[in-house]
Amino acid sequence: MKKQTLIIASLFVLVLLFVGGSYVYKNADHSVSNEKTSALVRPHAYVLGNPNAKTTIVEFFDPACGTCKSFYPFVKNILKQNPDKLKLVLRYAPFHTDSYYVVAMIEAARLQGKYLEALEVIYKYQDKWASHGTPNIGLIWGFLPEVGIDIEKLKDDMKKPEIDALIKQDIEDTKTLGVKATPEFFVNGKPLVKFGKQELEELIASEL
């Protein structure tokens, strides 16, 4: 009997510790520290939404990431619902094989005024060029003309040192901020502690 009582008491204590720990973690301030704030937004980052909005979503993404693809229309829809209140800052976390070069394509397309067009067509055909973890980025060349991108100019612009520099800066910032998976979101400097679309929506709503 005493043994059963001891087991029940131990379980009760464990439950209390778990619930208490979860509460403390959920309510703790996980905001990025002041010394790391500069790593969140860089002048070169592409911005969607109202550039003067008070609420800033920073997304670190990888164009080969399937979850990033699924979140893209979701976040764009939230922006659409709050056109004056939100801006989305897109940053790179090219963790997948060869994603570095895909990011360079997107940035080179930006020089043609085709940033979003390139990103969206790359997402559109992601299952073809990034399937099963064995990317074949050579296939992307065949998709980009669909949105009016000059491929020869793109190939030349990808070699520009400023593109290489900004990608390296983003990679360095992922290390500073502890970004280890994509997509990773920060809203007004607060990271998405529990990952999920509903949780992201709630975090954004709390900052509006």
Describe this structure in words.
The protein is 51% helix and 12% strand. The longest helix has 26 residues. It has a 5-stranded mixed β-sheet with strand order 1-3-2-4-5. The protein is an alpha+beta fold. 28% of the residues are buried. The N and C termini lie far apart (55 Å).
Distinctive features:
alpha+beta; 9 helices; 208 residues
Write the layout of secondary structure elements.
Elements: H1 2-27, E1 46-49, E2 55-61, H2 66-81, E3 86-92, H3 99-110, H4 115-124, H5 126-129, H6 140-143, H7 151-157, H8 161-177, E4 184-187, E5 190-191, H9 197-207
Parallel strand pairs: 2-3
Antiparallel strand pairs: 1-3, 2-4, 4-5
Please provide a brief summary of the model.
This protein is α+β, with helices and mostly antiparallel strands. The protein has helices at 2-27, 66-81, 99-110, 115-124, 126-129, 140-143, 151-157, 161-177, 197-207, and strands at residues 46-49, 55-61, 86-92, 184-187, 190-191.
Low-confidence segments: none
What is the N-to-C order of secondary-structure elements (H for helix, E for strand)? Answer: HEEHEHHHHHHEEH
Which percent bin holds the helix content?
40-55%
- Overall shape: globular
**What topology, given as strand order, has the largest sheet?**
1-3-2-4-5
Share of residues in strands: 5-15%
Give the overall pLDDT as a whole number: 89
Number of strands: 5
Distance between the first and last residues' Cα: 55 Å
Main sheet attributes: strand count, strand direction, barrel closure:
5 strands, mixed
What's the Cα radius of gyration? 21 Å
Class computed from helices, strands and strand pairing: alpha+beta
Q: How many H/I helical runs?
A: 9
